[in-house]
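Hi all, a correction to my earlier message: I attached the wrong file for THUMP domain-containing protein. Here's the right sequence:
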Amino acid sequence: MASNYHRKPYFRSNAGPSSQKNAITPGLCGLFFTAENEQRAVPEAKNLIDRFLEEETLNLTTEKPVPSEATEKSEDISDSLKTACHQYKRGHKSALRQLETKARNTLFFISPQITPENVYSLAEKMVKLCLEDEAQTRFLAKVIPIEETCYASMPQILSSLSGMLSKHLEKFSKEFDFPPCYAIDFKARNTQAIERQPVYDEVVALMNEQSKGSKVNLTMPDLLIVVHDRTALVQITRLIAPLRVQ
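and the right structure:
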């Protein structure tokens, strides 16, 4: 007699030992989420990432100029969009990867389509959508764009931050004629490799060196310099709001 027993799907929590294949390594760019329920938040995060990466792919497709000689032979615009969408879905599903963070209720995703050039805009679009429609995120709490990961050592962190600060300060100076104010967000999960105060002191020294006149502003910073220590995750970002109203 056939049994009606169905094995419960297995879910690997972030808190357990990580495999080498899914471990976070230096030099990665991706999207980091905090969640109330890690298992149920995974499909929510994937759906959000899929939605906005597909949107970017379609926008790039429609913006490509068509040579005048090939206009008559080119595909209809609707067919082009369908083709681009199909290619995106076929390639992206295998490209989007979730890596283990070694901390409960946190998620980290990488993809070839997530780059330092678009990681901030992707996070901002997610926040805007979820604030308008809270039904999009029942279990996700916050998204943080990760521009770069590095090892949990002070020389590595300072090396990464120095280059990233230089890039962001140059971009800020092109848009505004005053030095940016900034804040520092440091978090350490399941590790004591790096202490808070030395990170604060070194970041302040870097800002004083690269942007004279910049001051700390904890309420409305122009730049939020974030150091999350796990392996470690290091990123600089504009202030990102929660995905849901707390």
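Sorry for the mix-up. Confidence is low (pLDDT under 50) at residues 70-74.
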